[in-house]
Amino acid sequence: NVDWCEGNYLHSEHVVEYFNTVSNLFFFVISPIMLYLLHPYARERSLSVHLVWLMMILVGLFSAYFHMTLSFMGQMLDELSIVWVQAVGYAVWFPRRLFPSFIKDRKTFSRLVLVITVVLSLASFVKPTANAYALNFFGLQLLYLQWNEARRCTDRRAMRLVKRMGVLWMLAITCWLSDRFGCDFWQKLNFCYLHGIWHILIVLTVAYGTTLLAYLDAGYEIPHALPALHYWP
Question: Which of 178, 84, 89, 175 is nearest to 131 (CA)?
Fold first, then answer.
């Protein structure tokens, strides 16, 4: 299993990586806000939309458990919960016009995604590296989907949302890579909190990303609702 750059048991004898654990509180703060903000869209489109942010709460819970214990089971739960969030987003927001020719409706497409995700999840217990393939499969597809669909959009607010999400995502990835591969440098500076900052940035990135996907999806699926982007609060 993985041991991140933050020192172990520095602040508590019961918590291995204290800041990496506490930073997951942002999942529990942002998730209820996003459930509230996306509810008008979910009410018109499908309440299954809420599964994304309900599962983000589980991501925060399992990530906190992993960093609190650094156990193999914690790592598996952490990674699998991320895979399932990505799979749900993929099933909910993948455009109908891009469905394979043998799939006629979203219910069938969602079942296919479910089967693939279950197989990958079971495979990860036999070969844990399967999680990496699953994360890349869904994650890169969702990023490509957002970028490709955003290019078709002419709404200026949507384009600003894309840019802000891109900046947050780049900052998040930079923090993750720096903590993972530049630990010696950050330890010399006595600043070993980049993975915890990654938690905060990635929650904000997902908030921007799900807002963008919901807006673009509403234009296709429920155009009668006249979707529009608004700042909150």
Answer: 84
User: What was the pLDDT predicted at 91?
Assistant: 93
pLDDT of residue 159: 87
CA-closest candidate to residue 82, choices 64, 55, 122, 112: 55
pLDDT of residue 174: 93
Question: Confidence class of residue 156 from pLDDT cuts 50, 70 and 90?
Answer: confident
Q: Is 88 in contact with 58 (CB distance < 8 Å)?
A: no
Rounded Cα–Cα distance for residues 76 and 131 (Å): 8
- Is the predicted pLDDT of residue 7 greater than 70, yes or no? yes
Map the chain to HEC letters. CCCCCCCCCCCCCCCCCHHHHHCCHHHHHHHHHHHHHCHHHHHHHCHHHHHHHHHHHHHHHHHHHHHHHCCHHHHHHHHHHHHHHHHHHHHHHCCHHHCCCCCCCHHHHHHHHHHHHHHHHHHHHHCCCHHHHHHHHHHHHHHHHHHHHHHCCCCHHHHHHHHHHHHHHHHHHHHHHHHHHCHHHHHHCCCCCHHHHHHHHHHHHHHHHHHHHHHHHHHHHCHHHCCCCCCCC
